[in-house]
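User: For my dataset I need records formatted as: sequence, then structure tokens, nothing else. Please produce one.
Assistant:
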Amino acid sequence: MRNEIIEICNDITEIRNDITEICNNITEIRNDINEMRYENKRIEKTISDLNNNINRAREIFKDESERTGRTISDLNNTINRIHETFQSENKRFEKSISNLNNGINEKPNGCILIIIRTKQYAYGSNEETLWKEFTSLVDQKRISEGHSLNSMFIEIASKNSLAPRTVYNFYHRIADLQEVSVNRIKKWVIIESLAANQYVLD
């Protein structure tokens, strides 16, 4: 009888150990489950962040694409305006040349007589003469067309690839200009003189 009791006690101890092991296993499983849940949340957050980054990248690309499209459109419009201005100036120049040739071909006793005089500024030999002719033409156009000086400076600058300040400085003789600027002003003076039938040859 005593041996049976001892055996039963041993069985109970084994059962207790088994229960303890099972509890430990359950705890490990719970820990694994919690770890998996945490990992799943981390993966879910990573996916969410990735989606947000993709959406932001799409928005940035869309904005950049629209901005690039607007820039290209503005550039095309600017090129078209420059081309139209060039064509207009070219037609005006050709008309002035035609008028000049017609006038020169007239007989002295005809209706038109072109007065021929020397224009040294046309060949770059006299900047003083160029300045006098320039200011004279600017003042004539300003009065006849009802423009202000500033608007004249802006108009001349835009048609000759100059800064309005450069035209202003030359008109008021504030500073010496670079040769390229002087040459562009010479071109304007020659064209305006032709338009007024005042241009003369050496």
